[in-house]
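Still learning. Any example?
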Amino acid sequence: MKPTYTEVSIDKRGVATLTLNRPEVHNAFDDKMIAELISILGNLASDDAVRVLVLNAKGKNFSAGADLNWMRAMADKDYQQNLDDADELAELMHKLDRFPKPSIALVQGAAFGGAVGLVACCDIAIATDNASFCLSEVKIGLIPAVISPYVMRALGERQSRRYFITAERFSANTALDMGLLHQVVAQDQLDTAVDNFIQTLLQNSPAAIKAAKTLIHNIYNRKIGNNVIAHTTQAIAEIRVSAEGQEGLTAFLTKRKPNWLNEE
């Protein structure tokens, strides 16, 4: 599939930049953009050259959420067609949330509706100090259903109860306080902020990062008991005897750099 609503590039470090590219409609997404994103994420996930994913957007705003023409078309379709459509959005959120490499969202301007879900699905989220967020669905008689597991995980139940039902617009600093964001910076500091994270991530074992992300998904919100304990002991044993685990331990003990570091 040739992208039309998105752009993707991979630099020599293995940093893939996936850009929402519909600035004329504030990067609102429809079924075509969702399909593109699903396809691109699948390709990047399986590309061993990719070490880090950066999700950003062109123009004044990160994303206005769902495209108005797309929503208008869905309103004329039946339940099954709407269910199929929602399944596609759910696949996008799941693919981004379970992306095996570290992911960083860069947010400027507005991030509304489903765009908040994209931010919540990334491992790290940075926004400019002029960014704003809104879970606006109830204003038009809808609910943020498909994105809710990811947004609630970030905001917690208490804040979700407020912002899901008020559809209030909230600032980047409020998003930072609630846990949706990890850092808020001035517009001219955004490139430096993301590069700092990228440099940190590239120092670490790709296999260990993937395993750490899997560990979080498998352990989070589970009661600590025999099954969880057994999972954690198996996970550390497996990574210790893995190729990168052995390489990392040997490099540490012999005071040399591990082989995943780019020496260029």
Q: What stands out?
A: The mean pLDDT is 93. The radius of gyration is 19 Å. The CA atoms of residues 225 and 231 lie 10 Å apart. The chain has ten helices and nine strands.
